[in-house]
Amino acid sequence: MCGMTDDVALDVNQPSKARIYDYFLGGKDNYPSDRAAAAQVEKAFPNIRRAARENRNFMVKATKFLAGERGIRRFLDLGTGIPTAPNLHQVVHEIQPESRIVYVDNDPVVLAHAQAFGSLDGTAEGLVDFLNIDLTDIDRLIESEEFRNLLDEPVAVSCFGILHFFPDPVPYTIVDKIMAAVPSGSYLSITHATPDLNPALAEVGEVYRSNKMDAFPRTHAEISHFFRDLELIEPGVVVSRVWPTPDETPAGEVGNAKTAAELDAEIAFFCGMARKP
Predict the structure, then answer these.
(1) Is residue 154 a part of any domain in this protein?
(2) H or E stretch including 129?
(3) pLDDT reported for residue 30
(4) Alpha helices (H) along 16-124
(5) What superkingdom does the record give (predicted)?
(6) What is the pLDDT of residue 120?
(7) Is 141 within the bounds of a domain?
(8) How far is residue 170 from each of residues 55, 137, 220, measured CA to CA in Å?
(9) What pLDDT shows up at residue 87?
């Protein structure tokens, strides 16, 4: 991996969204401040670890669908986070070895991992780049050489668990500008926390904000608005267990006594994918 290298100071006393997520996934790249904030989140929403794993599972499902069924070979991952196997580029390169992937994040621990990866984690045919850019500076991303190098083919743009960390109208601006810049036939994939499925998510947002981190769970209508000028892939903006088709053991069947509403409340995020006409 390579890319822009602005210095970002590591403050271990200030919780980090990326490191908290790493903690929920069972990672080791977190500090006492992160774990203390994570404990507050978990108190408000005890199923957060499962939700984090399900978010990761959707990344794998969506990436396999795009690389395998849609033949996409250009990927832009916004808000990459600390590497957790399987990483997006690993999923892609198993299917499309010649693909290009650009990761974007500005967390110092994420950057350290990107530098440790070096250029060895791609394939002989493919390429993995990393850009150290704050997503609020989206114009800088669009002007970068790494981004421009993706534009010879349709691009899969992914925003997995990142847009709910920005206040309005910032995330809509990010998505609109990126999707305006990529070619026709590109795709947008999103996961986004919502209080619609579990009111506890409103309290989770308050916990993050009390720890000096923006967090704004949104409604189904607000999340759907990200896709307003795109062609939604069926089944639309839904819970991840029914995307692209329902899980093999639906709610209420043998081995799963929980109702659909109970299952959805444990995850509490919507996902969706859409194509640029």
Answers:
(1) yes
(2) strand 127-132
(3) 95
(4) 17-24, 32-44, 48-64, 88-95, 108-117
(5) Bacteria
(6) 42
(7) yes
(8) 22, 10, 18
(9) 94
Q: Rounded to 5 degrees, what are φ and ψ at 40?
A: -65, -40
| Predicted structure pTM score | 0.92
Query: How many independent structural domains does the chain possess?
Result: 1
Could you list the mean pLDDT of each consecutive 10-residue stretch along the chain, which spans 277 residues?
A: 57 95 96 98 98 97 98 98 93 96 94 67 71 97 98 99 98 99 99 98 98 98 99 98 77 64 96 99
Write the single-letter amino acid at 95: I
Predicted local confidence at residue 256, as pLDDT: 58
Host H or E run for residue 173: helix 170-181
- Which residue from 109, 48, 50, 52 is spatially nearest to 83, judged by alpha carbons? 109
DSSP notation for 196-233: SS-THHHHHHHHHHHTT-------HHHHHGGGTTSEEP
Report the pLDDT value the prediction gives residue 118, as an integer from 0 to 100: 52
If you search the block for the tokens 């839904």, which residue do you land on?
Answer: 238
201 domain-assigned: yes
Residue type, 277: P
Asked if the structure places residue 220 within a domain, the reply is yes
Give the span between the Cα atoms of 117 and 134, in whole angstroms: 20
Give the residue numbers spanning the domain of 92: 17-242+255-275
Residue 228 Cα to chain centre, angstroms: 19
d(CA 75, CA 101): 5
